[in-house]
Every structure is written in structure tokens, then in C-alpha cells.
Amino acid sequence: MSVHDQIEDARAQALSRVENAPDLDALVAIEPSLFGKKSTLGGLKRLMGQVDASERAAIGKALNAAQQAVREAFDSVRVTLAAEMRREQLETERMDLTEVPCAPNLGHLHLISQTTQRLEDVFVGMGFTVSEGPEAETDWYNFTALNLPSWHPARSMWDTLYLDLGSGEDVLLRTHTSPVQVRVMEQQRPPIYTVCPGRVFRRDTADASHLPAFHQIEGLVVDEGITFGDLAGTLDEFTAAYFGESIKSRLRPSFFPFTEPSAEFDITCTICEGAGCQTCARTGWIELGGCGVVHPNVLSNVGIDPECYSGFAFGFGIDRLALMRHGISDLRDMFTNDVRFLTQF
Ligand code: PHE
């Protein structure tokens, strides 16, 4: 083989090794064997001494050209492989900036606040406004205006906590959110479509399913021609919107002094979806709250003519709803403020 052919061979071989290097590390690893004294082209240089003087210049030129071609190919492949490696690295090391790493202990709304807001969202979506009232109430708003005069035996349905504020037993911690409906009706003429969420209090010893302070949401509608059917339809609509289409509502006859007729409002057990389980005592239903058509006396008490307007009201507990939705077994866990519990929600 002529020296020229050997140079051509060595150059082709070197170029193919450069082009086939799989990554930057492999390319860098073969660098000494391409350009060093021990490389094939380097070896050929050493033959120069034995080459005929007349050919020496031409062979030297060919050798240099070959070496330069390999160097250029090497440099360009190195740039490409380095860019590729950088791109891969960026891809695998990409940081998730949606979680702020310098504020890991950021707080969030309590489960009850989250549940309340979700409930408000559903009712606002149905056209209701949101109203609030004081937690310390007078006897009038909590009982008397709601058709519960002082002698009414049904007052014992609520284990009331009274505040020692002057005149006898006049100021109390509200036992339900119903006084807010009285306040709304006093301030606003029909049509009224509102929900009143809030904290309520009863003289109860805390256990897994009772708390002396808990939360309710009350709904009130007063308009012309409102019937019990509107109540049933609204509760059904709410149940489907909040829990999903598979959960239904039902009404059972009951008694409340401020509504007539009155009903107990149940929903399909969210755990077993009606099949019957431990949570719903194998009935397939869970009791959520009370409801009914607003008693004419209540409307009269706030100066709304019961001959022109009628309405319905409903009220249910928020804490038990949150408990059911998240499979919590003890209501008290929600208020002992253990962050390990709270951060789960
Ligand atoms: N206020 C009632 C309670 O706390 C619930 C209720 C609200 C019933 C509205 C009927 C209408 O038990």
C-alpha cells in the first residue's frame, strides 16, 4: 500500500471513530488515540524519515491535511455532543418551581373552612347569597322570633349555653344558625335566597360524634308561591352538585317550631352509596339536618306578610359532612390542632 493510501485509510478510520462516538465521554476518551504520537496518523509521521525526498513535501502536506480534517471533525462533533449532554442534563434536573422550596411550612385553610367555602360555592352557583350573624345572640333571635316563646317546651331540643351578661337569661351562645335567617328577614324584603354558615354552641360533652362548638349552614328562601316541592327540589339539586349524581336526598316527617311542615333531610350514605354499612347503621342513609316550610308566625314576627309570601329553610352540620367526606373517625381530631392531622387536608 502506498503511503498516500495509508494516510487516506488512517484518516477515514479516524473520521469514522469520531462520527460514531456515542457521547461526549466516549469522544474525549478516544482523543489521545486520534492525535497523539501513538495514533495511526502520528505513526505515519514517523515514517517520513524513510520516504523518498522528492515525495516528502507532498506526503507531509497530505498528512497535515488529514490531521486537520480529523481535528475539525472532532471539534464539531464535540460541540454537538456537549450540547446534547447539556440538554439532557437540563431535562433531568429541571426544578418544579410550582412548589416554593423556601416556604415548606406555609399554612392553609382548616378543613372546616375549606368545607364551608365549598358549600358556599355550590349555593352561590345556585343563586344564593351568603349571610352572617353574631355568635352571641339574644333570646329573641335564637328562640322567640323563631316561634319559640319562653314557655315553649321545644326549647329543650337545644342544650343552651347562656352568657352572664346582665338581664337574666337574655344573651346566649347561638344554638343554631337559624337566628341569622331572622336577621336577614328583618333587613331585607323578599325575594330572599341566602345561606348562613357559622359556628354554633351547645351544652354537650365532646365525644367522637359531638362537640360543644360545631358548625352549621342554614338556607333560607322567601318569595311568592314557594312550596315544600321547591324545598325538596333545591335539596336534591344541592346534594347532586355537592356529592355527585350517585348521592340522592330524601325527606322524613319531623318537627321544628319554626317550620311547618318540617322534615329531616337524609342523603345516600357516601361511604357505601346506599348498600348499607357500619357508618349508616346498614340503612344506606345518613341524616344531614332539618328543614321545612317557614312557619307563618316567623314571617309575621319579622313583618313579612304570610298571606303574600312563603318560604322554606334548611340547616345542617358542616363538621359531620367533612368527617364523612374524608373518612375521619373522631370529630375531636379536627380541633386538637395537631399539625400532623391538619396538614393532611
Ligand atoms: N335549626 C335547626 C337545628 O339546628 C335545623 C333547621 C334549620 C330545621 C332550618 C329546619 C329549618 O336543629
Detailed description of the structure:
- The protein is an alpha+beta fold.
- It folds into 2 domains: 3-106; 112-342, BirA Bifunctional Protein, domain 2, CATH 3.30.930.
- It has 11 helices and 10 strands.
- The strands form 2 sheets. The protein has a 7-stranded mixed sheet with strand order 1-5-6-10-9-8-7, with helices on both faces. A 3-stranded antiparallel sheet has the order 2-4-3.
- The model has no long low-confidence stretch (mean pLDDT 90).
- Phenylalanine (PHE) binds next to strand 9 and strand 10.
Largest sheet: 7 strands, mixed
Mean pLDDT: 90
What is CATH's topology name of the largest domain? Answer: BirA Bifunctional Protein, domain 2
Bound molecules: phenylalanine
CATH architecture field of the largest domain? 2-Layer Sandwich
Please report the first level of CATH classification, the CATH class of the largest domain: Alpha Beta
Radius of gyration of CA atoms, rounded to a whole number: 41 Å
User: Tally of extended strands?
Assistant: 10
Number of helices: 11
| Helix content estimate | 40-55%
Strand order in the largest sheet: 1-5-6-10-9-8-7
H and E order? HHHHHEEHEEHEEHEEEHEHH
Span between termini: 80 Å
Poorly predicted tracts of residues: none
As a percent range, the share of strand residues is 15-25%
Structural class: alpha+beta
- In CATH, what is the homologous superfamily of the largest domain? Bira Bifunctional Protein, Domain 2
Shape: rod-shaped
Overall structural domain count: 2
